[in-house]
Amino acid sequence: MSGAKGRAGRLGRVLDDLRGRTGRRVIDLLRRQVASAREGAELACTAASGTVESTRARARMSVVEHEGDEARAELVRALSRTLATPLDREDLFRLSRSIDDVLDQLRDFVREADLFGLSDLSFAVEPLQAVIDGLDELEQALVKILGDPGSVMAALLATRKSQSRVRQLYQARLTALFAGRLEMDTLRERELLSRLDAVGRRLGESADALADAMLKRSH
């Protein structure tokens, strides 16, 4: 009896693959990861602007991170049971890991901002808004994979532009920071700026992972 159920389950997965349901499920889980990362970026931005106290932002970030981890774990389970995927399986793992890294870096930014206790975090607002914009473009790229694959690369280019914007803001602020008086808060701000730059790099790696996957798909 159990053997029959097992065969029926495998048959059901095959039918789902053929109907495209599994592909949609995989994309939806990646979009859930991006949504968690975006929420983390918004949370970091509210902390930087002073709208939310850094201690409260840090506590809320733990919940957001857990949601992102759940989506990633569910994606890994789905991929292990899926016979056919909309993109190369290895690239999907890489993309998922890169999105997870974005959220991890945002978590570390919020935690360090709380620990360092800087009175003014406004320097982080603009880079974080660029991260949010980039995540929005990445989400749009995911939406278009199944319905409009020809438009995916344009969205990914916009994601990379957001990453470049983060880097430009990081370099400009760092230059201004070291042109002034060197104090302990200067070093603390430098560490937070480096964390924001790391967020941008992870965002760029996410775009690269999806671009590589789309290139493989086109061949």
Plain-language structure description:
- The protein is mainly α.
- Helices cover 86% and strands 0% of the residues.
- The longest helix has 35 residues.
- It is elongated, with a radius of gyration of 20 Å.
- It starts with a helix and ends with a helix.
Task: Provide keyphrases for this structure.
mainly alpha; DUF47 family protein; 219 residues; 0% strand; Methane Monooxygenase Hydroxylase, Chain G, domain 1; elongated; 7 helices
Show the helix and strand layout.
Elements lengths: L1 H18 L1 H29 L4 H28 L7 H28 L8 H23 L4 H28 L4 H35 L1
Helix pairs in contact: 2-3, 2-4, 2-5, 3-4, 4-7, 5-6, 5-7, 6-7
Family: Belongs to the UPF0111 family.
Protein name: DUF47 family protein
Pfam families: PhoU_div (PF01865)
- Rounded radius of gyration (Å): 20 Å
For this structure, the CATH topology is Methane Monooxygenase Hydroxylase, Chain G, domain 1
How many strands, what sense, and barrel or not for the largest sheet? none
Mean pLDDT: 90
Q: Give the helix level as a range of percent.
A: over 70%
Kindly provide the name of the CATH class.
Mainly Alpha
Q: Based on helices, strands and strand pairing, what is the structural class?
A: mainly alpha
Number of helical elements: 7
**How would the global form be characterised?**
elongated
Helix/strand order, N-terminal first: HHHHHHH
Bin the strand percentage.
Answer: under 5%
At the fourth level of CATH, the homologous superfamily is Phosphate transport system protein phou homolog 2, domain 2
Distance between the termini: 43 Å
User: How does CATH name the architecture?
Assistant: Up-down Bundle
Low-confidence region ranges? 6-19
What's the structural domain tally?
Answer: 1
Number of strands: 0
Family: Belongs to the UPF0111 family.
Organism: Nonomuraea bangladeshensis
Protein name: DUF47 family protein
InterPro entries: PhoU-like_sf, Put_Phosphate_transp_reg, UPF0111_domain
